[in-house]
Design goal:
alpha+beta; Nuclear Transport Factor 2, Chain: A; 3 helices; 27% helix; globular
């Protein structure tokens, strides 16, 4: 597997399944730039954001359904569930990561709720 894809897989596993904030931060560049408006730039911004997210959702899980890489970019399509203990907080997420010098340098995402009663049977994945 492409090393950039593996880097993103390892970051995702640490952050959203193992809930290991320090390990997740190790995958980020020192000058990490965040485009999600709810997280600040830098490792400290990611740390604060992950600590808040994990604090609110201690059992959250994430599963990468698709992963693509081209040049310095890795794109994932993932399923996340914030509160698996009660079946709520189901999300479809697209993340774009820019990789520089073997680290995640930049991140964008689009997050959509998964409806309980969709109008079709195709699923979001």
């Amino acid at each position: 597997m492409d090393t950039s894809k593996q880097l993103v897989r390892d970051f995702e596993e640490a952050a959203f399944n193992a809930h290991d904030v320090e390990k997740a931060l190790s995958f980020l560049a020192d000058d990490y730039k965040q485009h999600n408006p709810y997280f600040a730039d830098g490792k400290e911004g990611m740390k604060a954001g992950l600590e808040w997210l994990i604090g609110e959702n201690p059992n959250m899980t994430s599963e990468i359904k698709r992963i693509f890489a081209e040049g310095e970019y890795v794109i994932i399509h993932k399923y996340a569930q914030l509160k698996p203990e009660d079946g709520t907080g189901k999300k479809a997420i697209m993340d774009i990561f820019k990789i520089e010098n073997g680290k995640i340098a930049e991140h964008w995402d689009v997050i959509e709720d998964i409806p309980e009663e969709p109008k079709n049977t195709n699923t979001m994945f």
